Structure formats: C-alpha cells, structure tokens
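Write out the 3D structure for:
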Amino acid sequence: QVQLVESGGGLVQAGGSLRLSCAASGNIFSISAMGWYRQAPGKQRELVAAFPTGGRTNYADSVKGRFTISRDNAKNTVYLQMNSLKPEDTAVYYCNAQLVPHVPPGATMRAYNYWGQGTQVTVSS
C-alpha cells in the first residue's frame, strides 16, 4: 500500500510564509515525478510546482519567484516553500507522485499516479 501524507498547511496573513511537506511511504520501487497541485473553491485543480519525469522543474506563472519546490530522494519527500503568500493562494494543496510500486515476482511493473489527501492553505488579507 502506497500513501502520500501531507503536512504544513494552515492559516497565515498575506505576505507570510508556509512550508508544505509530502512524504511517500509504502511498498515503493521507484518514484519518477513528484509535485504540488492546488484547488480553490469553484475552480479546477491546477499545477503549482513539480519535478516532472526527466524534465526541468515546472512552476505556475502565478507562483514563480515566490514558491520553491525541493525534494529529498532519500526520504521520498517533496517540499513546497511558499513565501510572500497572497489571498489568491488560498486553496487545498495536493501532493502528487508518479511511482512504481513493488509487485510480486513475475508481475508487470508499471507507474501509477498517486494523490495525497490535501492540506488547506488559507491566506488572510
């Protein structure tokens, strides 16, 4: 069983900072991509920042220069440092990982897409 567990959300005033963490645990063979998405009320889920498979780090234009994504491969953990927060950053933030779980001998290994349960970030004006 694979789990993504997020932490670090909360309530902060505009201009403040928060740091989100997401740890992947369970029967993991390898992780290819990890990232953060967010969903505000009445809006679609959108990419915030990610380490894509084999590519460069991606950031949404709205967070460039304010948010920084980092990753600790030894801990299967991805972080999102959020600075200069704005009320429009208010959303539920979701961790995402594309990973290959261990399978029984003879079974086919493949990558699956996993989501965390989400953590609320609220920025007051």
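The mean pLDDT is 94.
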